From TrEMBL, chain A:
<feature type="transmembrane region" description="Helical">
    <location>
        <begin position="148"/>
        <end position="169"/>
    </location>
</feature>
<keyword id="KW-1133">Transmembrane helix</keyword>
<feature type="transmembrane region" description="Helical">
    <location>
        <begin position="329"/>
        <end position="351"/>
    </location>
</feature>
<feature type="transmembrane region" description="Helical">
    <location>
        <begin position="46"/>
        <end position="65"/>
    </location>
</feature>
<keyword id="KW-0472">Membrane</keyword>
<feature type="transmembrane region" description="Helical">
    <location>
        <begin position="189"/>
        <end position="210"/>
    </location>
</feature>
<feature type="transmembrane region" description="Helical">
    <location>
        <begin position="439"/>
        <end position="467"/>
    </location>
</feature>
<feature type="transmembrane region" description="Helical">
    <location>
        <begin position="12"/>
        <end position="34"/>
    </location>
</feature>
<keyword id="KW-0812">Transmembrane</keyword>
TrEMBL record, chain B:
<feature type="transmembrane region" description="Helical">
    <location>
        <begin position="100"/>
        <end position="121"/>
    </location>
</feature>
<feature type="transmembrane region" description="Helical">
    <location>
        <begin position="70"/>
        <end position="88"/>
    </location>
</feature>
<feature type="transmembrane region" description="Helical">
    <location>
        <begin position="37"/>
        <end position="58"/>
    </location>
</feature>
<keyword id="KW-1133">Transmembrane helix</keyword>
<protein>
    <submittedName>
        <fullName>Uncharacterized protein</fullName>
    </submittedName>
</protein>
<keyword id="KW-0812">Transmembrane</keyword>
<keyword id="KW-0472">Membrane</keyword>
<feature type="transmembrane region" description="Helical">
    <location>
        <begin position="9"/>
        <end position="31"/>
    </location>
</feature>
Length: 468, 164
């Protein structure tokens, strides 16, 4: 790779940055539904698995950032440098998993509960709106970072105020102490009915599937590290203003102490993001939702039965109804409002990330694609996934959105194990020695591959069920 | 004049605090409580949160806080948020039934989450607000210059460097 100067890291541990995408994508069904549900079923002690899952994701985030900030390339390009079919594997997995509009339906269904507007109308209107807004944006990243920051900020403040008003000290103590009950697995959890559900919930602790891989594209778009030398993707209307995209990344001089000092600054910056923003917010939202769910069961024990069923919409409605019927109708509405907000965040983030990732791989590795601009490819994938999503919503599988999410959860887990292996290969083989990961980081990422793939295949062989 | 300049800096933080308090009011109103009680619940949380939020903006303008840094803001709200909730619950609620200490300990934990959300929104609103008020307000102008320096430092890509 050509050598360029590494820019200075931001002067302070600054709270704004690309982590907002990871938080927007990561704080989803796992945090608001799957884990509160498991806590109600198996007790707060089951949360030790959540702690492992989210902490593992924080380390994965740091390692994804290592390659992206050192080269300005996405992890997909890194995978292609190691073994090109590996990159195509992720291209195909993304197409298979993320073209389904399942993530949209949960939020839209929650909105239907509040407003009465049929969820399909909201979902289709949302899809078209996302396409139009992204097509008109001058620099898509800037627009999306602003919008997501406002939405996530509102979600975090709102969740904090609601949790402050409905929760108690004992709720939060049991929720937190449960996180340290390492090894706790009740007999019921080790059954064909529930183990696959636990595997799915572990995959949905924090960002699931390929979301961490897309984070490398957002780091680049934010100008983090060597990403500063790569032009930004523009909306279709401003595609003509886009600068030529280089066909490869850049590297800084790792023998120069001044450059290495700047590199350490960037690592500090991203570590702050991983620990405080990503880990902290994910924990806060999950603990808050668990406290809300515990309050719901206290007020109406029937909610526990409803949650045991595997229909997500029924369970979410039951949780909302339970708190409403116990004299706190506001909590029900606010609970559903947050589910809708989470759905909106995920939709905005996913559509952008999917299009960004597929466009990046197509531009760099499909012959003749460079005749187009990155913005054109981005728009092509964006509108492709929007039109497909509308068709599926109108004429899709009869078993509805929950079925879509189940398939997503299965493939997500496999992709997560696969990206841990990819990370080990890319960071240890493609980066210069001074900036390669430490042995203990490799150990954690190796454990990640074992954690995701091991649980997936154990579930498959022991129970004959892949993921719930 | 100096007071007006400081108050202008206080407005974004005060608005966020007041907005968060309004959520509490909405919660009470939708819970079927009389409008008067809902307004009281909103007001008793919104006022202290707005005061603390506004004070943050003023202290930011005086250089006591640095834009976007979390640590000091986290500590600030670890004091501000539990106190605000204490005021609210003392005047309108029943949250103190378990005792003041468990109540404050719980609020202390939640306050860190509130601090992240507050800072996130504040960092989005403040630069836009400063752009509109920098003219004629030296404090706003100085703070805006600080934000611009930070933005430039974190977006260092030169036109030349961007090309192939």
């Amino acid at each position: 790779m050509p050598i360029r100067k590494l820019p200075e890291a931001p002067p302070s541990v600054h709270i704004l940055g690309p982590t907002v995408f990871l938080v927007a994508l990561g704080v989803g069904m796992g945090e608001s539904y799957m884990w509160p549900r498991l806590v109600l079923l198996f007790g707060p002690e089951i949360r030790w698995l959540f702690l492992i899952g989210v902490t593992l994701q924080a380390v994965v985030m740091l390692e994804m950032a290592r390659y992206a900030m050192a080269t300005g390339e996405s992890i997909f390009s890194g995978a292609a440098r190691v073994f090109k079919p590996l990159m195509w594997f992720f291209f195909i997995v993304a197409m298979a998993v993320y073209i389904w509009p399942g993530h949209l339906s949960a939020g839209a269904a929650a909105l239907e509960q509040i407003s009465g507007i049929p969820w399909m109308v909201t979902a289709i209107a949302g899809l078209i709106l996302v396409g139009v807004v992204f097509s008109f944006a001058k620099v898509i990243y800037n627009l999306l970072e602003s919008v997501l920051s406002l939405l996530i900020g509102t979600l975090v403040i709102g969740t904090a105020v609601v949790a402050a008003m409905v929760g108690t000290w004992s709720d939060v103590v049991t929720t937190i102490t449960g996180m340290f009950s390492f090894g706790y697995l009740p007999a019921e959890a080790m059954t064909a009915a529930w183990f696959p559900v636990i595997v799915g919930a572990c995959a949905f602790a924090g960002p699931s599937g390929m979301q961490q891989m897309w984070y490398t594209l957002h780091l680049r778009a934010a100008g983090a590290g060597m990403g500063a030398h790569i032009p930004k993707v523009r909306g279709l209307r401003h595609a003509g203003e886009e600068e030529a995209m280089p066909s490869r990344g850049f590297m800084f001089d790792t023998d120069d102490p001044a450059e290495m000092a700047k590199w350490k600054g960037w690592r500090r910056w991203v570590t702050f993001d991983a620990l405080l923003l990503f880990w902290g917010i994910t924990m806060l939202v999950t603990i808050s939702f668990t406290v809300i769910a515990q309050a719901a069961v206290r007020q109406n024990p029937a909610v526990r039965t409803a949650i045991q069923g595997d229909d997500r919409e029924v369970a979410l409605t039951a949780m909302a109804d339970a708190v409403s019927s116990a004299g706190s109708s506001a909590l029900g509405v606010i609970f559903l409002g947050f589910i809708a907000l989470i759905g909106l965040n995920a939709t905005l983030g996913l559509f952008d990330s999917f299009s960004r990732g597929q466009a990046d791989m197509t531009y760099n590795f499909v012959k003749g694609a460079k005749k187009l601009r990155m913005s054109h490819l981005y728009a092509g994938f964006l509108w492709g996934v929007i039109i497909f999503g509308i068709l599926i919503l109108l004429f899709g599988p009869a078993d509805g959105p929950s079925g879509i999410l189940d398939t997503l959860a299965f493939l997500s887990t496999f992709a997560m194990g696969a990206y841990c292996v990819t990370l080990l290969l890319v960071n240890n083989r493609m980066l210069p020695k001074p900036i390669r990961p430490k042995w203990w980081t490799n150990l954690i990422i190796g454990f990640g591959a074992f954690f995701y793939l091991g649980m997936l295949f154990y579930s498959l062989f022991a129970f004959g069920v892949v993921v719930g | 004049m100096i007071q007006r300049q400081s108050l202008e800096l206080a407005l974004p933080g005060a608005s966020i605090g007041a907005g968060a308090g309004a959520i509490a009011g909405g919660l009470t109103l939708l819970a079927g409580q009389p409008a008067g009680l809902a307004a009281q619940s909103a007001l008793t949380l919104a006022v202290p949160l707005a005061l603390f939020g506004g004070l943050y903006g003023i202290l930011l303008g005086r250089g006591i806080f640095r834009p976007g840094t979390f640590g000091p803001v986290g500590l600030y709200w670890m004091a501000g948020f539990p106190l605000s909730r204490l005021v609210q619950e003392s005047l309108t609620g029943v949250g103190l039934a378990d005792g003041v200490l468990p109540f404050l300990a719980y609020q202390l934990m939640v306050s860190l989450g509130f601090a992240i959300g507050f800072l996130w929104l504040h960092e989005r609103m403040m630069p836009h607000w400063l752009l509109r008020h920098a003219e004629g307000n030296p404090r706003a102008e100085a703070l805006l210059a600080l934000y611009i320096r930070q933005a430039q430092a974190s977006q260092p890509r030169s036109e030349k460097g961007a090309r192939r």
